[in-house]
């Protein structure tokens, strides 16, 4: 009798845990306008963001700019998370900003209903999230255009969703070695964060950095939503080689992997899916080929649309 109920209990547990994980996560990566458009090259995604997510077991769908609200809503219900990459477009007015706002609003709504939909912003994407949350442009100029830095973790980092699964040794390396690559001229100053009620109540600061003058926020997670941002570039360590300041040490590569694994594990928590296998196949990034651009760009490979 005891054994039987134990077995029932166990099978419930097993059933329950498998029911909670989506083992076919698909994540959207947002495109953005190219600086100087050419025929068939009006928007792009750097391939390193795609590889970053693929390395942790997700498939990728490009989220094109300039789509209708209806198209974005359909896509939102088809994918399991979205990543806003770094780049150089306006966070106040661009195709990137418009799509980012639509998905951000849909994610907030969905998460309020218990539909767990994660959003990640890297560099420009982080700045975009700060703008969307605060409704204001609050960035300060910093001298951080090409420098790898160690993270200064806050007390909140250890218990955070993002970092709690990281090995202690990697946390130690992250805090003592320059493993996080910064390529930005604008930053969210800690002082600005501390005096902005919207940002303060929405985001928990997990790490900060300084350029010597201005202390800035470098990693955040939202308190009540699976929304994450890094001012630095977790994807570059493993996948970009064009700049001498991109770190490639074993701990740098593990940083890429653990960040990717974390975000993909967040995307496994909902079961959004395409209406049909055909719709899914047509949407996947596999329909596009990256171009080798390492000779003239900061990115080794780029998808153009
Ligand atoms: C642009 O793409 C279309 C459709 O893929 C193709 O037919 C055309 O040749 C391309 N144009 C250029 C300039 O590459
Ligand atoms: C997006 O729309 C804007 C404004 O209509 C246009 O200038 C731009 O070329 C479009 N870009 C793409 C990639 O479709
Ligand atoms: C900017 O930072 C670099 C080090 O990353 C330093 O060499 C340079 O002098 C700084 N420039 C200014 C204007 O502070």
TrEMBL record:
GO cellular component terms, A-Z: extracellular region; vacuole
Catalytic activity entry: (6S)-5,6,7,8-tetrahydrofolyl-(gamma-L-Glu)(n) + (n-1) H2O = (6S)-5,6,7,8-tetrahydrofolate + (n-1) L-glutamate
Highest taxon listed in the record's lineage: Eukaryota
Family annotation (InterPro entries): Class_I_gatase-like, Pept_C26_g-glut_hydrolase, Peptidase_C26
The keyword Calcium is annotated on this UniProt entry: no
Stored SUPFAM superfamilies: Class I glutamine amidotransferase-like
Principal place of residence: secreted
Keyword Transmembrane listed: no
Keyword set, alphabetical order: Hydrolase, Secreted, Signal
GO BP annotations listed: tetrahydrofolylpolyglutamate metabolic process
Signal peptide: 1-19
EC number of the protein: 3.4.19.9
PANTHER family: GAMMA-GLUTAMYL HYDROLASE, PROTEASE FAMILY C26 GAMMA-GLUTAMYL HYDROLASE
Family as reported in the entry's similarity comment: Belongs to the peptidase C26 family.
Protein name, entry field: folate gamma-glutamyl hydrolase
Protein's organism: Collichthys lucidus
Record lineage: Eukaryota, Metazoa, Chordata, Craniata, Vertebrata
């Amino acid at each position: 009798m005891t054994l039987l109920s134990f077995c029932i209990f166990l099978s419930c547990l097993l059933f329950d845990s498998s029911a909670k994980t989506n083992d076919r996560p698909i994540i959207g990566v947002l495109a953005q306008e190219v600086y100087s458009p050419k025929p068939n090259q009006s928007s792009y995604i750097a391939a390193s963001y795609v590889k970053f997510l693929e390395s942790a077991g997700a498939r990728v769908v490009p989220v094109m700019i300039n789509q209708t609200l209806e198209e974005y809503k359909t896509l939102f219900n088809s994918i399991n998370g979205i990543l806003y990459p770094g780049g150089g477009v306006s966070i106040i007015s661009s195709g990137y900003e418009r799509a980012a706002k639509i998905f951000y609003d849909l994610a907030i709504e969905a998460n309020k209903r218990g539909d767990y939909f994660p959003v990640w912003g890297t560099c420009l994407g982080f700045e975009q999230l700060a703008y969307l949350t605060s409704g204001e442009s609050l960035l300060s100029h910093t001298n951080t255009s090409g420098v790898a830095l160690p993270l200064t973790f806050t007390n909140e980092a250890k218990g955070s969703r993002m970092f709690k699964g990281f090995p202690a040794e990697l946390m130690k390396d992250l805090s003592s070695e320059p493993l996080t690559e910064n390529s930005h001229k604008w930053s969210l100053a800690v002082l600005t964060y501390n005096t902005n009620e919207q940002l303060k109540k929405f985001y928990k600061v997990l790490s900060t950095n300084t350029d010597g003058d201005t202390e800035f926020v470098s990693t955040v997670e939202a308190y009540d939503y699976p929304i994450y941002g890094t001012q630095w570039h977790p994807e570059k360590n493993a996948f970009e080689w064009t700049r001498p300041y991109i770190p490639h040490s074993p701990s740098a590569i593990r940083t890429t992997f653990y960040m990717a694994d974390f975000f993909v594990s967040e995307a496994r928590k909902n079961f959004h899916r395409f209406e049909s296998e055909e719709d899914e196949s047509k949407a996947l990034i596999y329909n596009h080929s990256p171009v080798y651009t390492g000779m003239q760009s900061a990115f080794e490979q780029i998808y153009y649309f």
